[in-house]
Structure formats: C-alpha cells, structure tokens
Amino acid sequence: MSTQNKKYPRLTAIIFTGIFLLFFAVYCTSPEKAGAQFNVQPMLDYCVEKTQATLNSQLMEDSLPRNVLQGQTRWNDVGIHDWCSGFWPGILWYAYEASGDAAMLQNAQKFTEPLRGVLEVPVDNHDLGFMLYCSFGNGYRLTKDPAYHDFLLKAADSLATLFNPKVGTILSWPAMREKMGWPHNTIIDNMVNLELLFWAAKNGGNPTLYDIAVRHAETSMETLVRSDYSIYHVAVFDTIDGHFIKGVTHQGYSDNSMWARGQGWGMYGYTMCYRETGNTRFLTMAEKLADRFLERLPEDGIPYWDFDDPAIPNSPKDASAAAVAASAMLELSTYMQAAELKAKYYNAAVSLLAKLSSPEYLSGDANQAFLLRSTGHKPAGSEIDASIIYADYYYLEALLRLKNMEVH
Ligand code: GLY
C-alpha cells in the first residue's frame, strides 16, 4: 500500500466501495448477467437426453408425438396431417443443434421426410407454418439442403392460397366457415405462421408473400388486439366487403377473456414481424402484448390457461404459454435500445425458464416429455394439465436462444 493510502485510509475505503458499487450496479443491470442465475446447459442436456430416450423407445417414422395425458407415461402419437406434426421433427433439429450429434441429425432428417405428404392434400388450415417451418424450416437453417428449400417455397405458396385480399388476412380455419358460421376467420396463432411467408419471399419465392404477411399482421393488429392489449382468439370477417364482424374465442374461457397461449402467439408473432420488416409498429405491438402478459402473471410466475378463468386459483396452468412467451421475450429483448427494457424482457424470459425448469413443471422421470402442466383445449375438455409437444418445442427453442445470447 502506498504512503498516500496509509495517510488517507478513509478516502481509500470510500473509493474502493464506490468502485465496487459501480461494478455491482452494472452487473445487476446487465441482461447477460441475470442469466447467470439460471444455468442453461444442464437443461439443454436434459432435453437432448429425453429426446434420445423417446427415440430409443421404438418410435416409428410415422409416429409423431403429440401429448402425454394425466396418468400416462408415454407419448400419444399423431399422423402428418395433425397440426402438431412439425414439432417432433423440430425438436429433433434443435436437439441436433444443441448436441452436434450426427445420429440426432439422421433422426431429424428421418422424421422430417414423411411430412412431404402434408402438401399432397388440399390446404385446409393456416397450420402449414407450424407443421412445415418447424420441421423443414429448421432443417434448411441447419443443413442448407436444397430439397428442403424447394419444398418450403411450395409450402409458402400453398399457405398463401388462403389469403383473402378483401379482408387482408389468411383464412385460418376453412372448416369453421360452415361449422361455426364464421365466413372468414383469422386466429392469433396464425401470426406465427407468417414466418414461412417472410422466409420464402427472401429466399427466391414470390415477393408478394412478403406483402401478404405484412397485410395479415396489420389487419390482425387492428382487429384481434383489444384496446387493453389483450387478444381475441378469433376474428370473424365478412367475405363480401371484408369488414371485421366480431372477436370470439375457440380455446379460451370466453369471447372477451385473455387466453394465455393466444397472448404468447401474439407477442411471438409481432416480435418476428419486426425482425422481418423493421416496422416499429410491430415492435411496439410486441412490447405491449408482452407487458400485458407480464402484468397479469400470477404470483408463482406461470400463467393459468386463461387469465380470466373465474375458477382461478383452482384452474389448470399452461406451461406451453410460458414457453412460447419466454422464447418471444428473449428475442424481443434484443431489439430494445434502452438497457432497462433489454433487461426487463430478458429477465422475465429467464424467470419463466427457471420456473419451467423447477420440479413443479419439469417432467423428469414422470413421463417422456420435457415439461408437465400444459393445457391444449380446455373448453373441449382436451389435453388439460398434460404434457404437450409444442410446450417442449418452444422450451427447447428458448433454451437455445438463451445459450446463444450468453455466448455472443
Ligand atoms: N394453434 C392451436 C393452439 O395453440 O392450441
């Protein structure tokens, strides 16, 4: 220690304390450091191990896991035409990305291939994005296989056939025109599927796919999103003059309630739309939707299936909504200029992931899935408090996003 420091011990202590406090403040406001409270690698390892265990359980190529219901331990499978068919191949692609394992790559390719059959029947819903972008889209991102590229362009053209220029949106559920008397209907989930159109427009596809995606996002913003930034599940439109007739629900508690996964799809979709367009209206919308979601989260941090179910707290949770929101908010945080907003969405996402990774929500040895406690379609009595494949998909996606953000 120098003579000067001996002479002024109090001053030295003050300077050192000041420097320490400054570093501590920077540490606390740095989004990356907040991630240090959650160790992402063991959770990625857990997902890869569980994916491998499902593969080892004599899964056939036409077996596409969808859910594990209460009291069950093994996946119930669906065929390629189910809206959830793309999530299992998508998980295999992410597990390959996380592990670099060549055998996992082969499995991802093997389970992606049968989904070519999706385009062999007439398009009858907006879910082509979930089905084919999660599977072939991730496959192309990781392998640059030209056959995946060409197939994705066809998929995007097929999805675009459901676009109604009079209304300005894609017809999400053609079957509901007759069944529910909804002449043209668009659901908030559809926002996520616009990614396939944006991808095609910038990868050699028809440039009008970009315009369709933008118009759909704008029309959805004006109709599906309410003034308090909660979201209707379904918007119903007139097919003659295209006007918005009403907002209703299909999977939520009531027409005016806030269905948890819908809020997740919305914030995910508008964050992605900002990435693809640079339009700040989409960014602001994503922030408002995320803020509404965060404001209304219950004390334990994971949403009930619908924020307005009067049975709360005796109501099922929806881990899938939390996983979708976590993935969305991680990306959203990267577009924030202000450090405190960056930290806000990053920390909110990490806290959702930490909660999902706790024994309350992690399936561990209980069943083949990564996560427990999702709710698919409560009003129909289906997939309540269950493990559902899209919860696992978005959980793994969010873990990978977090890992990449920590590395870069
Ligand atoms: N896309 C249907 C759902 O979120 O359940």
Q: What can you see in these coordinates?
A:
Helix content is 53%, strand content 7%. It is mainly α and 408 residues long. The chain has one domain: Alpha/alpha barrel (Glycosyltransferase). Helix 5 runs parallel beside helix 7 (128-143), helix 12 packs parallel to helix 14 and helix 15 (339-356) crosses helix 16 (389-407). It binds glycine. Residues 189, 251, 261, 376 line the site of glycine.
SSE layout and pairing:
Elements: H1 3-7, H2 9-29, H3 31-34, H4 40-56, E1 64-68, E2 76-78, H5 87-99, H6 102-112, H7 128-143, H8 146-160, E3 163-164, E4 169-170, H9 176-179, E5 184-187, H10 194-201, H11 208-223, E6 234-237, E7 244-248, H12 260-277, H13 280-295, H14 319-334, H15 339-356, E8 387-388, H16 389-407
Antiparallel strand pairs: 1-2, 1-8, 3-4, 5-6, 6-7
Helix pairs in contact: 4-5, 4-16, 5-6, 5-7, 5-16, 7-8, 10-11, 12-13, 12-14, 14-15, 14-16, 15-16
Bound molecules: glycine.
Question: Descriptors for this entry?
Answer:
single chain; mainly alpha; Glycosyltransferase; three-stranded antiparallel sheet; disordered N terminus; binds glycine
